[in-house]
Design a protein that fits this description.
- By secondary structure, the protein is mainly α.
- Helix content is about 85%, strand content about 0%.
- The protein is built from three helices and no strands.
- It has helices at about 5-25, 25-35, 40-60.
- The model has no long low-confidence stretch (mean pLDDT about 80).
Amino acid sequence: MNPRYAFFFKLLGAVLVILLLALLFSPVMKFVEMAARELVYFWWLVLLLLLAVWLIWGLGGKKK
């Protein structure tokens, strides 16, 4: 399969999964709506998420 098609199908699948989860879990949609209204609160959550990702994968790398 062409790598471009593979990327497209992966992206399409991710979007479909996100939409399906959003439809199944309406509290998540309410949270996203509230976060969109209160951008300051939302950005703190984004920063906390990035910190968590950095702690999980950044510090767990190969040791020199």
